[in-house]
Amino acid sequence: MLLQQLVNGLTLGAVYTLIALSFSLVMGILGVLNLAIAELFMLGGYFGFAAILAKLPLPVALLAGMAGAALVAAVIERVGYQPFRDAPVVTPMLSTLGFSIILQNVATNIWGSDPLQLPDEVFGARFTLGPVSASAMQLTIVGATVVLVALLAFVVQRTALGRALRAVAENRDVARLLGVSAGPLTLLAFMLSGALAGAAGVLIGLHYAAITPYIGVEIGLKAIAVMVVGGTGRIWGALIAGPLIGVAEVMTTAYGGSQIRDFVVYGLMIVILLLRPQGLLGGARTEQGPRV
Amino acid sequence: MLEIRNLHVSYGAISAVRGVDLDIAVGEIVALVGANGAGKTTVARAIAGLLPYQGEIRYAGRLLKPNSAERNLRLGVALVPEGRGILSSMTVGENLLMGLYTRIDRDQAAADLADVQSRFPILAERRDTMASLLSGGEQQMLAIARALLSKPKLLLLDEPSLGLAPKMTDFVFEMVLRLRDEGLTVLLVEQKARQALKIAGRAYLMETGRVLTSGPARELLEDHVLANAFLGAGASKA
């Protein structure tokens, strides 16, 4: 029972990790909380569903969700962030909140407010190992998350593009002195962030075999909690905090009841804010400088 | 190589640089000296393209645009900023690779990286160390090495001796002379005016956003009234 809950928690945590990485990528580089990410997650789910319903294979659905969400993220960056980049940080944040509401509204008008369901037979297979059983979809979620995080880590840590992103995150003036144009990299950061959120949307949509225009709100807020627990803007903090929150949530539901689930998740976030506001991977409390 | 005419830079309502004219010829070391707050750093940052400004800055006959640091670097103007500008979340090796960011000549860039590492062996030894763990002198070496990797023709050094021990300061100034001998043009912004004037060919003395006087560095050093008033006691005895 405990092992089974652990598997379920890790599956949920994998999705939280992807969305939290999506938040952290923009937060780490620009210091801005993109509140539209929750809706990019939702839209990614719808784009992925459209591909699955068109009988396209899962990798194509995943790519469709990522590409679609990345394109919408690009629009948000151009219209909702760039014009306000020199304004107080709350201004672009409010702008992305506006986008979030608009995107939810658009989704409701296109797909309706009722859940869009997938046929039961999609990814119905289950695998059992001793007392633990996992669906093909659960394994796909964890596998896809591992691959996407590894890809992101490779890009950020090992490529010239990643170094440039980290340079902009740490010191925009120094990055400019080294020839890095912050504008295109900002757009790229938004698009990468959108792609991660879109992937998470496809995976969670397939996991529940249903999606609604409102699915982004709750999971998006949980992802923000994951980001805070991991360390705001520390993109790798989500790798620890995502599974931690996912397992905590599932265990709480299993052993304490769903009525206290959110109390535990957001309580953990508040405890971290009180005792270690820099997050689990945030370094010393007084540390200045790099965020990524 | 560089001509500045009637440069004005403001931070909001505060006018930091007021009508500065400055010239640098190819292969020169020009010192820009003056007290803290005189506007020296602002001039260097304006040339590098980090600031909006009014007036004209021409480099190699080409009019530079304000606030266009990325373009200026590609044209050959590199700034080692005050405080060194080390990317502390990266290793020494990654900082050096950032110096190659604009390079498209991969083979030559790799050769230049090897050359810089032989010039600064400590950086090669500590390639995998986080840059934040280097000493002040090593960080300054890293900042200069990184700037050199972009293949600049004009190197702007802003307070390269800041926070360094005297021995390391001497090392940095000797290196500036070597770079000049290799054909690089240098604008040296320094508060340690005496030492800067010793290695510079010409100098500009700034006060409260204006150029107070300029001329051959040796003459400024030997002007007793000027040296005692602006370059610190004993400057003229150097």
Could you describe the 3D structure shown?
The complex is a heterodimer of chains A (292) and B (238). Chain A has 292 residues and is mainly alpha-helical. Chain A has a domain of 197 residues. In chain A, the strands form two sheets. Chain A has a two-stranded antiparallel sheet. Chain A has a two-stranded antiparallel sheet with strand order 2-3. In chain A, a hairpin with a 2-residue loop joins strand 2 and strand 3. In chain A, helix 2 packs across helix 9 and helix 5 packs antiparallel against helix 8. The C terminus of chain A is likely disordered. Chain B has one domain: P-loop containing nucleotide triphosphate hydrolases (Rossmann fold), CATH 3.40.50. Chain B has a six-stranded mixed sheet with strand order 6-7-8-3-9-10, with helices on both faces. In chain B, helix 3 runs parallel beside helix 6. In chain B, a hairpin with a 2-residue loop joins strand 9 and strand 10. The C terminus of chain B is likely disordered. Chain B is of the alpha/beta class and 238 residues long. The two termini of chain B are 30 Å apart. Chain B is built from ten helices and ten strands. The chains are: A mainly alpha (292), B alpha/beta (238).
